[in-house]
Amino acid sequence: MRINLASVLVDDQEKALRFYTDVLGFVKKHDVPLGEDRWLTVVSPQDPDGTELLLEPSGHPAVKPFKEALVADGIPYTSFAVDDVKAEYERLRGLGVRFTQEPADMGPVTTAVLDDTCGNLIQIAHQAG
Question: Residue 45 CB: number of other CB atoms within 10 A?
Answer without folding.
Answer: 10
